[in-house]
Amino acid sequence: DAGVIQSPRHEVTEMGQEVTLRCKPISGHDYLFWYRQTMMRGLELLIYFNNNVPIDDSGMPEDRFSAKMPNASFSTLKIQPSEPRDSAVYFCASSLVGVDETQYFGPGTRLLVL
Amino acid sequence: GNSVTQMEGPVTLSEEAFLTINCTYTATGYPSLFWYVQYPGEGLQLLLKATKADDKGSNKGFEATYRKETTSFHLEKGSVQVSDSAVYFCALNSGYSTLTFGKGTMLLVSP
């Protein structure tokens, strides 16, 4: 398996622009997680899905953030409008709960909002 | 609630030195415990895990033993290499689908 795939790997945008981050989980996994990592706040869980359904979005910082999972093999995290404080590395992870609790992480998207 | 506490870094060692990174936890029930490693510019990778008390997880020369009596899961390696330089995260899963992570400990190994 190719592992969790994220795109783009790097994104530079200007404040106010819309940003869309993409994730393809490992085939067959039933949970998908979005995290944000910064030096100041460390690793934060933003939202997670089970069988494409959002279960807990309490970590989403503001209404500017939204996430969707239209099918088992694709998820997006959207920021609209983006702000400089959104600059971070965003990770997607997937797991197959009940078989293996391990979360498998993608390589991340490094977002810089100018 | 659940929490994980790791020693603050950075931990700076010379090559071939002995490594210990402390991790203690607070959790309800009987959690599974994990160590993840993050190399520069990469995502987190599972290093090792233990699912019940007294289990020892091991991988790539790293070891950690699940100690329920002290609620600890300390990471050890007998002889570190420069290539082990990374950030190490301790984490737990207490029966739900999410992981609770520690803040991470940076390890720097010099030749």
Overview of this protein structure:
The complex is a heterodimer of chains A (114) and B (111). Chain A is an all-beta fold. Chain A contains no helices and eleven strands. Chain A has strands at residues 5-7, 10-13, 19-24, 31-38, 42-50, 53-56, 65-71, 74-79, 88-96, 100-105, 109-113. In chain A, the strands form two sheets. In chain A, strands 2, 4, 5, 6, 9, 10 and 11 form a seven-stranded mixed sheet that branches. The radius of gyration of chain A is 13 Å and the shape is globular. The mean pLDDT of chain A is 94. Chain B has strands at 3-6, 11-14, 19-21, 23-26, 32-38, 44-50, 56-59, 62-65, 75-77, 86-93, 100-101, 105-110. The model of chain B has no long low-confidence stretch (mean pLDDT 94). Chain B is mainly β and 111 residues long. Chain A binds chain B through residues 4, 31, 33, 42-43, 45, 48, 50, 55-56, 91, 93, 95, 97, 101-108, and chain B through 32, 34, 36, 42-46, 49, 51, 89, 93, 97-99, 101, 103-104.
- Figure out the total of helices of chain B: 0
What's the β-strand tally of chain A? 11
Q: Which consecutive residue ranges of chain A, at least 5 long each, have pLDDT under 50?
A: none
Please tell me what the overall shape of chain B is. Answer: globular
Low-confidence stretches of chain B: none
Structural class of chain A: mainly beta
* Interface with most residues: A-B, 22 and 18 residues
Given the helix and strand composition of chain B, which structural class is it?
Answer: mainly beta
Oligomer state of the chains in this structure: heterodimer
Order of helices and strands of chain A: EEEEEEEEEEE
Rg value of chain B: 13 Å
End-to-end separation of chain B: 41 Å
Q: Strand-residue fraction of chain B?
A: over 45%
Shape of chain A: globular
N- and C-termini, Cα separation of chain A: 36 Å
β-strand percent of chain A reads: over 45%
Reported for the largest beta sheet of chain B, the result is:
6 strands, mixed
Chain-averaged pLDDT of chain A: 94
The tally of helices of chain A reads: 0
